[in-house]
Amino acid sequence: MQNSLLKNRNYCLLQGANLINRLGDNVDAIALSWLVYEVSGNASVSAVNFAINYLPTVFLQPLMGAMVARKDKKSVMVFADAMRMIIVAVLALTVLSGHANTPIILTATFLMSCFETLRLPSANAIIPLVITEDEYKAAVSFSSSLSRMAELIGMGLAGLIVGIFGIYTAIFFDAFSFGVSALLLSLMKIKETIKPSKKKRVFFKDFKDGLAYAYTNKIILYLCIIAALANMLMVPFNALQSAFVTDFYHGDAAYLSLMGIALSLGSLLGAALYPKVSTLIKSKMMIVILFFAGSFYYLGLLLAGYLADRYLLIAAIIIVNFITGVIIGIANCHLSVLLMIKTPQDYLSRIGSLSNAFSTSMIPIASFIVSALVSFISLEALFALSGIIILVLGVFLSLTKKMEVLNE
Fold first, then answer.
1. b/e code 244-259 from CB counts within 10 Å (16+ = b)
2. What is the DSSP letter of 20?
3. Is residue 178 in some structural domain?
4. Confidence band (pLDDT; 50, 70, 90) for 25?
5. pLDDT digits (tens, 9 = 90+) for 125-136
6. Angle between helices 73-96 and 102-130 in degrees, nearest 10
7. Best label site of 3, 8, 156, 218, fewest CB within 10 Å?
8. Residue 350, Cβ neighbours under 10 Å: how many?
9. Can you give the CATH number for the domain in which 53 is found?
10. What is the mean pLDDT of the chain?
11. What domain range is 376 assigned to?
12. pLDDT tens, position by position, 150-202
């Protein structure tokens, strides 16, 4: 199946664009996280920046999904990548010139996220235009593997680039990746049939139709709720990883790279194993295992910090991230396939954007709460509490009968 995908010019260009885009993003993720903490010196600001990154996803993406439903998907993606290239390049110049400050970083984060909300629904809806439904599983597994490879390389490069060439170089690299992505997407040749509508206010009708479909489809609704819970409970680590590495492990950006590499290697293996594993494990159990993995991640990273020997600490970090990555790689592939299979093509851009918005809706709220909590409790206590809560939720999901609908 993958051989036929590799012969598909449009699919290869799309995956090439996503690969270079993802590579730059992962270099930038570490650089920006480190930059925020370095400029502000405050873990609370890191949490606020994390929240701002998701605000456009929550409030704009449902509208963007309806807006691009009757637009040329390729053109929308090219425009979004070009705009993100400009924003990131300007941010890199401010860092290089020594004028970077917290308001500038927060503004750049917000603007980049705004244009990402424009790109994502188009990226979801363009997939059925380049492959057939029979190729979904193989395509998702393959693209997920490529994404994990990009993360692996990006995380490895990030520590080196930041340490040797400076943060601004890593951010310039991200701007370059957006430019290359836009170029590759522009080379795609897709015949997309845009269905015109004679009805007035078609934008709002499309939006309401997508919302109604998501609400009445129990599988999609449950997937959104589960993803929202998982994303919310991972906020403490995602928002405070630089502060955690610095204060708890007494490490530097290289530690973030190491954790990212191990997580990506695990995710890469998980994506490769997904086609086989999906025939052995039902959807409900896969969700439950995902929550157990989240608990294991928090508690494992926390316990690793008490190892006195530096080499044992590094080994423990690698093991915890790798095991968690395998489970995340499998689960992400399954959720993507499930969403595509259960959603009609005409609804993909709207359902994709709505589900993404809903699943990330609690992240800004959780980030602001975390920003306040770190002023009163230690990072260790926050990580332990998060791990315990995720474990309890995993047990609850394993016992509830309502989750059985995912197995249908």
1. bbbebbebebebbbbb
2. H
3. yes
4. confident
5. 777 777 776 776
6. 160
7. 3
8. 29
9. 1.20.1250.20
10. 78
11. 2-188+199-407
12. 766 776 677 677 777 777 888 888 889 899 999 998 888 877 666 555 444 45
Q: Which amino acid is at 105?
A: I
Three-state SS at 154: helix
CA separation, residue 336 to residues 34, 73, 82, 300, 392 (Å): 30, 19, 26, 27, 25
Tell me if 145 sits within 8 A of 336, measured CB to CB: no
Mapped onto helix, strand or coil, the DSSP state of residue 248 is: coil
Closest-CA residue to 41 (of 89, 84, 86, 101): 101
φ/ψ bin of 41: left (φ > 0), alpha (ψ from -120 to 50), beta (otherwise): left
Rounded Cα distance between 215 and 211, Å, is 6
51 occurs within a structural domain: yes
- Distance (Å, rounded) from C-alpha 294 to C-alpha 285? 14
Query: DSSP labels for 106-136?
Result: HHHHHHHHHHHHHHHHHHHHHHHHHS-GGGH
Question: Hey, what are 108's tokens?
Answer: 């750049």
Q: How many CB atoms lie within 10 A of CB 400?
A: 9
Is residue 344 included in any domain, yes or no? yes
CA distance 393 to 337: 24
Mean pLDDT value of segment 18-25 = 82
Alpha-carbon gap, residue 344 to 195, rounded angstroms: 15
- The answer to whether residue 333 is domain-embedded is yes
93-152 confidence digits (pLDDT tens): 998 888 888 888 888 888 988 888 888 777 777 777 777 767 766 776 677 667 767 766
Least confident interval from 10-14, 216-220, 231-235, 326-330: 216-220
CA torsion sign for 73, 79, 83, 84 is positive
Higher-confidence residue of 340 and 226: namely 226
Q: How large is the angle between the packed helices 348-359 and 43-59, nearest 10 degrees?
A: 150
Q: Do the beta carbons of residue 274 and residue 333 sit within 8 Å?
A: yes
